[in-house]
Amino acid sequence: MDKRNLDGKVAVVTGGASGIGLSTVETLIEYGAKVVVGDIQAEKGSALETRFGPETLRFLQTDVTNEDQLQSLINLSETAFGGLDILFNNAGHGGAPGNIEELAWDDYDQTMDLLLKAVFMGTQMAIPLMKKRGGGSIINTSSVSAISAGYAPLTYSVAKIGVAHFSRIAAGQLAKYKIRVNSIRPGFIATSIFGASMGLPRAVADQMAEQLSQAGAKMQPIGRTGEGRDIAEMVAFLASDAAGFVTGESITVDGGITTGPPHSWNEEMGGPLLEALGITPEQVEAMMAASAES
Description:
It holds the Pfam family adh_short_C2. This protein is of the alpha/beta class and 294 residues long. It is 47% helix and 13% strand. It folds into 2 domains: 251 residues, Rossmann fold, CATH 3.40.50; 34 residues, no CATH class. Strands 3-2-1-4-5-6-7 form a 7-stranded parallel beta sheet, sandwiched between helices. β2, α2 and β3 form a beta-alpha-beta unit. α3 runs parallel beside α4.
């Protein structure tokens, strides 16, 4: 029996009309699941329902910070497909910019409502439906910014470490219902979230994602930019019976970017000490060569 098979499973994916969410929707369907998609992007979401057909995918325009809209999305899994087995709390944006001195509290609240509170709400709303099914899997999108500074704005980073720790605590509380809860920490994934967080129109942000895909490889030890499918495959694994003994974990999927600074994996980089001294790797090689000749 293929434990990655999701036949008969029903999933809800928030933020499923683009980026990581879209890749996850496509992957879950490929593995046999039926999917309910929530997103604020009505045109893209409706196109998804047309593409896969209402017998496989349902779309509901959803602002996950709105309790009534989120509850309607969760409920749709039962009315459309008979229940809920998988929840991917993924909707988000790049977070309010600015350091602690500049931060506007309204922006802070909006970021936390979207990136953290909506994860709490979605999880809570999923529990009754998953209990009816005898269990389920909840997967939440965290970030590598939860474990290191410098990857994202302050607000985003704080929210994402909250998501990871919430997932761990929820896993303990919900284990008695056979509901597993995990989070994923994506690294540098080429999606429109970067352009959107800069205030660019969605169409321009989508184009920027293509540029990031080409330019980001040099940032990664693994030599390529992350793709939505890289995260989607981890979601599918955590949603499946193959991960039946995995709960309370925060799993990093980042191409190795958090293994260390660039000089730790790129021999062409001189490292912080040489940089501070103003010495290039080429100069080091020249000094070593001169030393060997003397």
